[in-house]
Amino acid sequence: MKYLVAAEADKIQDFIFRAARLREVVGGSQLLARFCGVEGAVTLADHYGGGKIISDGGAFLFEFVDKENANDFGRDLAELYRRCAGGNLTVADPIGFEADEFKEKSKEAKENLRLNKSAGDVSASAVHLPYTAFCASCGLAVALDHRSKVKGARANYICSNCFNKDREQAEQKKVFINDFRKAVLQITDDQAAEKSLAEPEKNDWTDAIGRLDARNYVAYLVADSNGMGRLFSDCDKEQMMLLSDGLTKVLRESLASPCRELLKGQPDLAHESLLPIVPLILGGDDLFALLPAPWALDLMRRFCIEYEKGMKTLLGQDEFAGVYEENRPATISATVVICKSSYPHTLAYNRARIELKKAKELARRIEVAKQPLQSVVSFSFIAGHRIDDLADLQKQLYRSTRQPYFIREVDKNLGTDVLRLSDLRLSLKDLPAKRRAELKDLYDNPPKHEDDLDMRWTAELKTLLERIGRKEKDANSLKKALKELGNPAAEKGHWTMVDRFGEDWFGQGLPDLLAIWNYAYKVDQPKSVYDGD
Question: Which of 358, 351, 360 is nearest to 331 (CA)?
């Protein structure tokens, strides 16, 4: 008889994002990664005679031969996490299992953990002082000291959580970033990695990457694997260990590959000697990364393609026989939020999670309908500090969007692939900014119903197309875009029927392209080819 102990860190996103500066987000991710490794949970389990099955991304599953040791490990793991990260970690009671019961008992352990997490926070004593100050970084926790987080910097009120995350990023040899840097350069020597692709001064990633765009915009990529919980549930112990160890490597390489392609296709970036893509959270099946905005759409597409390839290779090993099915590939949902470099990263992440939820919902609908599984992507643009809500036209018959998109061609009624947007962006490069603005204004006010389409909207579009038609090249390119992003046979705006399994509406993808006009560049094309009017 052996015993399973399941545990999970609570509110990981709150822990990581409870910081004012992006360097502290990276530090929080690195702190969590080290806690999940040999410096934290794994060594503690060894002390109690336990073995690691899963220890990544704040999720833990260990096995023990002694129940008392399993209980002691769970108690001490939660205390160690509190001391290291200043957060809470939920631990389920140990569950006994025989060798042939692993799958069943691992599911039971997961369910017990879910019940424990939903039980609510336990009572705890609050800090009571006659005079208090809140942390100047996160603004939430009570400050414990007035000091400099970095030697030579101005002293300020700081909580232990923010101090530890900042120190982690500054002093722990930047393991989290270096692992990604080495994957990009495909090398193993740390010194060569640091020398080849440096970090900006004071770790000011958003400002440095924002300068790669003329308008000082950046992009945040958020991705989450589809059906990963079900896949883990189908694994035996050895398969689960292989999957847990391999998943983070696949995510890292899937992000590193388009970064290499970007550096190859944009020589000017290579001359900058700056790492142009920065992982902020990379563990388990979750990814949050900072991207250069001009290539955001193409980078997201390439990342998803590499993820599918990497997972196919990982799950195609003989060890996964009986679990992986060739006709049910591992897929992923992803979204990018494009915003000013000064826009708070926490708000950008929250916006991305909203868009990601829509993509994952469509992926689930496709699976339920027993259609070929697809990786689904979406995007959102925040102009200045104002969110462009073209995708939020819920319950309307005509919607100026075709989101979410896919990374390859699908049934035309289901949607279209995101590469088509990048291709058409290049063919429309000479369309004047004035005409683009007029088209965007028109599509921002789509027809309310069929009569409105016939009596008002089509006439306005016709007038606008006649103006554009004075330049034959622009007219032909625009007509091509309207057909490819809509319905080639529908002359009234080329609106196309979108069938989302019980939710039908008419859509058009041109407004999506107009909304992210400057951020749909292809990685392998020089920026100069997009210079139009």
Answer: 360
Helix (H) or strand (E) holding 247: helix 237-265
In 24-140, which ranges are E strands?
51-56, 59-64, 89-91, 95-97
Tell me if 138 is assigned to some domain: no
Greatest Cα pair distance, the chain, in angstroms, is 82
Residue 163 lies in a domain: no
Residue 501's identity, in one-letter code, is: F
Domain boundary among 338, 370, 388: 388
**Calpha distance 51→61 (Å, rounded):** 9
The Cα–Cα gap between 173 and 152 comes to 19
Joined together, the tokens standing for residue 177 give 């970033």
Helix (H, G, I), strand (E, B) or coil at 431: coil
Confidence of residue 229 (pLDDT cuts 50, 70, 90): confident
CATH of the domain at 307: 3.30.70.270
Cα distance between residue 480 and residue 427, in whole Å: 9
* Full residue range of the structural domain in which residue 495 is found: 420-533
Q: Residue 46 has what pLDDT?
A: 93
The answer to whether the peptide bond before residue 404 is cis (omega within 30 degrees of 0) is yes
Tens of pLDDT, residues 469-481: 877 677 888 989 9
Instruction: Assess whether 373 and 446 both reside in one domain.
Output: no
